[in-house]
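Re-run requested by the PI after the first attempt was lost when the workstation crashed. Everything re-entered from the original request form. Ligand of interest: S-adenosylmethionine.
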Amino acid sequence: MASISILRSLENLISASVDIIEERVQIPDLDSAYHESVVPDNGLSDPAVADAISCIVAATAQLVATIRPAHLTLISTAMMIHVPSALRTATDLHVAEVLRDAGPQGLHVRKIAALCRTSSGKLARILRLLASEHIFREVSPDVFANNRISSLLDTKKSVDRFAQSKWDGGVGIAAFVSYTGGHTLKFTSYLAETMRDPSFAYSEDHIKAPFNYTLKTDLPFWQWLDLPENEVERRKFGLAMTCAPKTSFEWGLLPKNSVVVDVGGGVGMATLPVARAFPDLRIIIQDRPKFVEDARKLWKEELPIAVSSGHVAFQVHDFFEPQPIQAADVYLMRWIMHDWNDPLCISILKRLRDAAGPGTKLLIVDALMSHACRDPFAYDIAGAAKPLPPKPLLANFGHARVGEYLFDLQMLVTVNGQERTIRQFSDILQVAGWEIEEVKSAAATQAHLIATPAVV
Ligand SMILES: C[S@@+](CC[C@H](N)C(=O)[O-])C[C@H]1O[C@@H](n2cnc3c(N)ncnc32)[C@H](O)[C@@H]1O
């Protein structure tokens, strides 16, 4: 297809998608504050709207790639590293909280800088870069306000409280932004060096990640997080898990008092919304000692009734050791498999298979990878095939699904881990004695693989 007809097809796709959205929902202004009850922030339950949004995101990115001079795309992509860095800086300086009370008219950067205790000249440049990427808004020269995106960084705490800690309690996406724009950015900057060093490039060992190369340590990432000097990073990491959408498993179909074990559950960010919505379930959060300690504190603050009623319990457990909770109704593992190489995943899965009863379900929540081109593989697992987008979009929905590939590299640089395709999952599960029954939300950043014990 000639470029001009590609541009026209993309333009038509965008226009048709806007029509679908206009028919079904009202889209809030980008300048108003974030509210989780409005579309698109909470409108993705309507599949037609979700698809239309994906088409717009994919098509606009493809339009830009097609029409922008190639050298400008390369130069601006290379320099995009400054965006996560600026975003983390604004987050750690509490700019969104400082701007909360200023409302839509905003605050002069001199006042923002005074409250954030930093240089106004440099802060203005940082905020202007972000405003150009539609995060914050420059209302008039040097006057900045929150917009729908930046206001999501607001932890709702008073700035005075930050003397104690910003990273206590449910601080949401700010923790993810601060963690990723800090440590992950450092680790990924050494990716090229590790790919040229054979002892790293060809290794599947979890202590051969760019993280280890960057910090010159042989400690596994999880042990490094346990060090006293990394306490703040560990808390941020635990809270960063809030950034995920809720699990879409049908928890409501489980009988009262069903036992759900959140294996490697961190501070319990996957099961906290489940416990809120289904208080009759019995949830056990297992993790390493420090995360269990953090989880206990967080749940006491966030959902004390679950703690006092005993509907949630916390257990120190190494998932390479025999599973202490036998025949649970559900073993949930969200964002665990992607941390480990195949042999170690198989060890974890075998421990759960040994403990499983005939009715046990294993729920794995992770991204499900696909190629960026069409894939002739015949999917014989229910729900595993991802819907194909309209042409001329890339077969994997391009920029609309880039999150999966970003997470994949996040795993590579931190723990030498990886996201997997359905074939890769199917292989390791089979070796460990599990059979995939169904896949839900295959195309989402968090696909759900539901497996049952294989009959031997
Ligand atoms: C990416 S986080 C996911 C946390 C949680 N599942 C969630 O989705 O919020 C991985 C978790 O695995 C835990 N972990 C690492 N090694 C472990 C082990 N050997 N036994 C139990 N948990 C472990 C980490 O402490 C961390 O909380």
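Saved to the shared folder this time. The chain has a mean pLDDT of 91.
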